[in-house]
Amino acid sequence: MDMKRYLALCLLCVVDLAYAEPSQPLIWYNGDVPIKIHAHPGSCASAQPRQGMPEFSRKEGFYLYRTKPGSDCLPVYSSAPDLNKSALYVQDSGVIVQFKPNQTAERIQRWLTQHGMEGEPLALPASFLIKKYQGRAVNGIEAIQLAEWMRDSKDIGVVFAQPNWRERAATRL
């Protein structure tokens, strides 16, 4: 094998390792129903084409790329290990949480502040979009973990908490 072909093959191996996918399954809750998903840390989705980066797929208005998520490219998850043969989940920043209707906005805001969260009310009564936790934007797996923690918290009535899914497509890519 000549050196160029060997280096190209080595480069492909390194690229495959860099985008080793997916991770171990994660669980998020759609109400009380546990949903198993797989993170794809080497992939991201964008509603707009990214300059100078060819997409590897396009689905439901999203361009999918083989790169780490960033400010203009959102984390990607799927319902099975193979991203190409399963439901697609694209995650926007934050956690959506709905509290029991007997909780006042002031009580909810105090509780959020006590736990280091910043959020803004949504149109649905007693619902908030949690944007920051401990002063940082809530993104990726941290948002999934925070939603699970909020769902399980006992000191305030949480009806549901889930990541801020931008899109979920139930068809193949």
The chain-level structural class is alpha+beta
Low-pLDDT stretches: 1-21, 169-173
Distance between the termini: 35 Å
What is the overall number of helices? Answer: 3
* Beta-strand residue percentage: 35-45%
Care to count the β-strands? Answer: 10
Portion of residues within helices: 10-25%
From the alpha-carbon coordinates, what is the Rg to the nearest angstrom? 19 Å
Written as H for each helix and E for each strand, in order along the chain, the element string is HEEEEEEHEEEHE
Features:
elongated, Alpha-Beta Plaits, disordered N terminus, alpha+beta, signal, ten-stranded antiparallel sheet, 40% strand, 173 residues
Describe this structure in words.
- Residues 1-20 form the signal peptide.
- Keywords: Signal.
- The protein folds into two domains: 17-91, no CATH class; 93-165, Alpha-Beta Plaits (2-Layer Sandwich).
- It has 173 residues and is an alpha+beta fold.
- The radius of gyration is 19 Å and the shape is elongated.
- Strands 1, 2, 3, 4, 5, 6, 7, 8, 9 and 10 form a ten-stranded antiparallel sheet that branches.
- β8 (127-133) and β9 form a beta hairpin.
- It contains three helices and ten strands.
Structure, briefly:
With 173 residues, this protein is α+β, with helices and mostly antiparallel strands. It has helices at 3-18, 105-114, 140-152, and strands at residues 26-30, 33-46, 57-59, 62-65, 74-78, 88-99, 117-121, 127-133, 136-137, 158-169.
What is the topological layout?
Elements: H1 3-18, E1 26-30, E2 33-46, E3 57-59, E4 62-65, E5 74-78, E6 88-99, H2 105-114, E7 117-121, E8 127-133, E9 136-137, H3 140-152, E10 158-169
Antiparallel strand pairs: 1-2, 2-4, 2-5, 3-4, 5-6, 6-8, 6-10, 7-8, 8-9
